[in-house]
Amino acid sequence: DAKTTQPPSMDCAEGRAANLPCNHSTISGNEYVYWYRQIHSQGPQYIIHGLKNNETNEMASLIITEDRKSSTLILPHATLRDTAVYYCIVSQGKLTFGQGTILTVHP
Amino acid sequence: GAGVSQTPSNKVTEKGKYVELRCDPISGHTALYWYRQSLGQGPEFLIYFQGTGAADDSGLPNDRFFAVRPEGSVSTLKIQRTERGDSAVYLCASSLDGQLNQPQHFGDGTRLSIL
Known about the structure:
Helix content of chain A: under 10%
Order of helices and strands of chain B: EEEEEEEEEEE
Oligomer: heterodimer
Structural class of chain B: mainly beta
Strand order of the largest sheet of chain A: 1-9-8-3-4
Number of strands of chain A: 9
Largest sheet of chain A: 5 strands, mixed
Radius of gyration of chain A: 13 Å
Structural class of chain A: mainly beta
Order of helices and strands of chain A: EEEEEEEEE
Number of strands of chain B: 11
Shape of chain B: globular
Number of helices of chain B: 0
Mean pLDDT of chain A: 95
């Protein structure tokens, strides 16, 4: 599976959009980009995934560059409950988690 | 609807003992995955079942670890002769059919502590 690179931590003000970047320059044609988040003492929570096109659901939006070498997860109006570790994963099936980005949403 | 259920939520046992961890996947999901998460790390893949068969067990660390899914639904992860290094959170996930575009949904895990 292709490796991903994410910043170790980010801050965001409550009510603002949180934009979490991810680099996956070695992604191959049939690999999907998945985003999960994990709050302490809970299992990872699925957020969104995509192959080539941008995607949006009730939780977030996923923007994938045209060359597919990077993507951005957007939480449009961050709340304190969005504080978590966010994992960007490029997968052909089994998920390979990196260190993720610790997002802290502050009042 | 009901998500992935894992029991027990916590398990404390002594070194050398045998443990079984149970996973109830989302109803109708044919694909089931086990992961292990050590403190401060992301989850690591252990094994993947498609139906009753283990399609990929490349993540099992050694032959003390074994998993079954006899009827294609509930799965049990078994660890023999436990060691202190086995202490971790063991996570189970399921997906509809294991296809690449089907997300995996996780339970909250079993926290295993080996004394």
